[in-house]
Amino acid sequence: MAIENQQNAAAPAVEESTSLFSSLVSFFVPTAHAEAPEESEEPAEEGGDEPAEEEEEEEEEPEDVAPAIREECEKGQCAEHVHHFAHCQEKVEAGNGFPGEDCVEEFFHVLHCVDACSAPKIFKKLA
Amino acid sequence: MLSSAFPRLISRAGARVQPFSKARFTSSSQSTTSTPGFFGSKTAIASSTLLATGSLVWYNHLYGINLLPEASANSAGENGMHPTRQPFEHYGPFETFNHASIRRGYQVYREVCSACHSLDRIAWRNLVGVSHTVDEAKAMAEEVEYTDGPNDEGEMFQRPGKLADYMPAPYPNEEAARAGNGGGLPPDLSLIVKARHGAADYIYSLLTGYCDPPAGVKLAEGMNYNPYFPGGGIAMARVLFDGLVEYDDGTPATTSQMAKDVTVFLNWAAEPEHDQRKKMGLQALIILSTLTAISLYVKRFKWSYLKTRKIVYDPPKPARHGPL
Question: Signal sequence: where (chain B) (predicted)?
């Protein structure tokens, strides 16, 4: 990914090299340069403009994909764990549990299922 | 057989046994038990008891009372929720970090995390070529004032930062950090990915995992519930909310996006050699596989004349006047 990001900066350097050998080498071994390109002002200006436009466009906050995906998992393949967890919550909150009982383990079972179900789906949507 | 091997030992042992056997025959007399030696005396019993008790007391004085039960984590809640493996891009054996993500993650660290967490082991120069260009890194460093000196008059002075400077810490010392966070110490994040079980998965899960505590969980005052944190009660509150930062590249800054980016950034901070390491791994694979292929070829080549030779027995022709 580093190479992809920096290729804009590296491209002029590749074109400049006149030697056949060095251009051949740089074709197979692309080199990323840390220095900003000479004409860095123009892209900076462009970069400055773009977010400003986007600011105007999207005033409202971006919405996270995760809660919807997790909810879907809770309703789908993790429904059984959610059911047990809800039962425990009901029992403990009504004061019918044994002294010191909590629903952490039931909650962890829900989380374990929902995490495994949602992680690939969420990461597919992330940049 | 033994006696032949150690003749002298055997003869001496026999000499030692002799008085014993004599004593056995005269056991009725008091003369042998009248001098029992030191280990049979009451002084020995008393002093050994004193030694045993004294060492136990001394040990407990030094290291605490070891007979009392120790603190231990046995329940699921005390151990914390085990983080699920998240499909990060850099998890593949030949995958590099997502450097666009590192850049965004740095922004999240700078705008959100750095208010409480230091990043002592990362200098501005480390960002160069990884997430920022050298000019960008210089500009960011110059925004921070560093104390330098002494100058010619022996006084310390303030100067703008340079690439060699390390990331500024939010608090001057641990006490100040604790005082500013209700007694909790925000850990340094330089190596946090390596310092926690579950590594990057844990950091991501922790940042996105804040929720209401399940029934029956009692939290101490000022604590927040996070199932991934061992014990459940964590002093840090949820910090990432949708739209908290604004990314330069226009990526929507949702909670999970920011958590992912800052996790990748912290993973890079803990393992800056990561990309180079995997590149070297591939290089090693190339060299070793080539050498293996060459050695197999050379072996076949060297053995070819041995493997393909044919031993032929050419029996002598029967003599003309032989038996047949």
Answer: none
pLDDT value of residue A39: 52
What are the phi and psi torsion angles at B242 (to 5°)?
-55, 135
A–B CB contacts, 8 A cutoff, strictly below: 127
Partner residue opposite A101 with nearest CB, options B83, B136, B216: B216
A 43-72 near B (Cβ less than 8 A): 47, 50-51, 54-55, 61-66
CA closest to B98 among chain A residues: A1
Contact residues, chain A, for B208 at CB < 8 Å = 66
As a whole number, mean pLDDT of residues A41-47 equals 44
How do B145-148 and B157-160 pair as beta strands? antiparallel
Q: What is the DSSP string of A90-106?
A: HHHHTT-SPTT--SHHH
Tokens 């030191």 locate to B38
User: What is the structure's pLDDT at B40?
Assistant: 86
Give the burial class of B244: count Cβ atoms within 10 A of its Cβ; 0-12 exposed, 13-18 middle, 19 or more buried. Answer: middle
Name residue B88's amino acid.
F
Q: Is the pLDDT of residue B177 over 60?
A: yes
B95 touches B278 (CB < 8 A)? yes
The residue with greater pLDDT, B97 or A27, is B97
CATH of domain B79-272: 1.10.760.10
Q: Give mean pLDDT, residues B77-106.
A: 95
Phi-psi region of B293 (alpha: psi -120 to 50; beta: other; left: phi over 0): alpha
The mean pLDDT of A42-61, rounded to a whole number, is: 48
Instruction: Indicate the residue of B84, B104, B248 with minimum beta-carbon distance to A47.
Output: B248
CA distance A48 to chain B (A): 8
More confident residue, A13 or B257: B257
Q: Which amino acid is at B214?
A: P
Compute the distance between CA of residue A68 and CA of residue A65 in angstroms, rounded to an integer: 6
pTM (2 d.p.)? 0.72
Alpha-carbon gap: A105 to the closest alpha carbon of chain B (Å): 6
Q: Which residues of chain A does B215 touch, with a Cβ-Cβ cutoff of 8 Å?
A: 88-89, 92-93, 102-103
pLDDT of residue B259: 97
- List own/partner pairs for B310-313 with CB under 8 A and 24 or more apart: none
In the predicted model, what is the mean pLDDT of residues B78-106? Answer: 95
B211 is in an annotated binding site: no
How high is the pLDDT of residue A38?
Answer: 56
Contact (Cβ atoms closer than 8 angstroms) between residue A82 and residue B260: no
DSSP code at position B74: -
- Test A126 with B248 for CB contact under 8 angstroms: no
Say what the pLDDT of residue A40 is.
Answer: 45
